Amino acid sequence: MASARISTLAMLFTLSGLRAQLVTQPEDQVTVAEGNPLTVKCTYSVSGNPYLFWYVQHPNQGLQFLLKYITGDNLVKGSYGFEAEFNKSQTSFHLKKPSALVSDSALYFCAVRDTLIGAAGGAEHKL
User: Fold this and answer.
1) Tens digit of each residue's pLDDT (9 = 90 or more) over 23-57
2) Which residues contact 5 (CB under 8 A, 6 or more apart)?
């Protein structure tokens, strides 16, 4: 049976000189057999309300947006059968797929942005 190898890398969006934010993806790599459930973990720390994002980058391709949470329903459905659940009490936004495919082998990015009203400065990302 084939397996999907999922690599992870956290992205952090900050506003210059303002509140601290942190994203953690505890596993560098997740390997699952094709057809099995897939979970890629992401926890975050922000001062305000978070905007949360998942991106994927397949080999030799650019970054692709999967899904985002800003407000509303805690379960967010995204592209390619992925979903993520916003859990404020555990400060987590884990990416899940009920049945992994070999074609899911890629680099996955979790990103957070703090919601600041009237903030000055541009956003930058740090890997």
Assistant:
1) 778 777 888 999 999 999 999 988 788 899 999 99
2) 29, 30, 31, 105
Tokens read off for 10: 């956290």
Identity of residue 43: T
103 SS3 class: helix
Only one residue has tokens 């210059």, namely: 16
CB 1 within 8 A of CB 33: yes
| DSSP secondary structure, 56-100, as one string | EE-TTS-EEEEEEESSS-SEEE-GGG-EEEEETTTTEEEEEESS-
Locate tokens 């999922």: which residue?
6
* pLDDT exceeds 70 at position 89: yes
